[in-house]
Write a structure and sequence with these properties.
With about 300 residues, the protein is α+β, with helices and mostly antiparallel strands. Helix content is about 35%, strand content about 30%. A hairpin with a 4-residue loop joins β14 and β15. The protein is globular, with a radius of gyration of 19 Å.
């Protein structure tokens, strides 16, 4: 990995850490999810970064892919367990990190958070060239289950490449016998999830995040513009329906997005919920796999 690229990964990570600190200050019972999301995304831009993916604000049994739309009136409840997953990129080189915040600091929440963080630490402690996906998944599950909770088996970490959030290999959060080894010079996001539920997530009907897939012909003027934005302005990275609602209005944006999703021009990220409605905690860092690995988001 060239030094210039390493520096861009590190710059993205530094910007992300500032946004994460802001999230810790703002996420409180009674606060508006939409207002906080806008403030954190604005902070990223003001600090010189670009949005790697819409801010994910996943509460309680929701594990991933919730971001508010323009009409969202959701506020944080006094007993909520909140996952804040942030993505930042500099010239396409992505930092991806998540934290979990408890609104009531109860023992159940603290245990889940400690489990996810322990799973992450166990993986980061061994993440280097030559370590296999089997070793990583085994380390994560072993650490999480020591807290009498379980990892989510169908959510994984992922390879990061320039303007590509999910670039190939997945980093499992459970024991497995995969002998695929981490290669020197790659960037990966490692993100264990712990739960007191079934250990699996299911797709919900709600979708707030989309991503460019391919060009498709359409007579809808707004659909053409949104597809162009998805491809070029957003760099092919995930985007929020909220962003296009601001420009085109809710009705036109929704109609255009639905057409593009139906034609497979856009990929959909449905909200993911724990199958037994168990509470979910998440911990995540981005690490550059080098002889001396660099955690860019720490």
């Amino acid at each position: 990995m060239e030094e210039e690229i390493i520096q861009k990964y590190k710059q993205a990570g530094a910007i992300l850490k500032k946004a994460q600190e802001l999230a810790k200050e703002l996420v409180k019972p009674g606060a508006s999810v939409l207002e906080i999301t806008d403030k954190i995304e604005d902070k990223i831009r003001k600090d010189g970064g670009q949005i790697g993916f819409p801010l994910n604000v996943s509460i309680n049994e929701n594990a991933a892919h919730f971001t508010p739309d323009l009409n969202c009136d959701l506020t944080f409840g006094k007993d909520d367990l909140v996952k804040i997953d942030i993505g930042v990129h500099v010239d396409g080189y992505i930092a991806d990190s998540a934290i979990t915040l408890s609104m009531n600091n109860c023992e159940e929440h603290k245990n889940l958070i400690k489990a996810a963080e322990a799973g992450l630490k166990a993986a980061l402690d061994i993440a280097k060239p030559g370590v296999t996906l089997g070793e990583l998944g085994t380390a994560i599950e072993t650490a999480i289950t020591e807290f009498d909770v379980v990892p989510i088996s169908n959510l994984t970490g992922h390879l990061l490449e320039e303007y590509n959030l999910h670039a190939g290999i997945s980093i499992p959060n459970v024991k497995n016998d995969l002998d695929i080894a981490l290669e020197e010079g790659i960037a990966v996001a490692i993100e264990p999830f712990s739960t007191n539920g079934a250990g699996m997530v299911a797709d919900m009907k709600d979708v707030y995040i989309y991503e460019y897939l391919q060009d498709k012909p359409t007579r809808n003027r707004e659909a053409r513009k949104i597809l162009e934005m998805a491809k070029n302005e957003f760099g092919g990275l995930p985007f929020a329906i909220r962003w296009v609602e601001k420009e085109f209005g809710k009705l036109k944006a929704r109609m255009a997005i639905n057409e593009l999703a139906k034609s497979k021009a856009l990929y959909q990220y449905p909200v993911l919920r724990e199958k037994e409605n168990g509470l979910v905690a998440q911990a995540e860092h981005t690490v550059l796999i080098l002889d001396n690995p660099i955690v860019t988001t720490k």
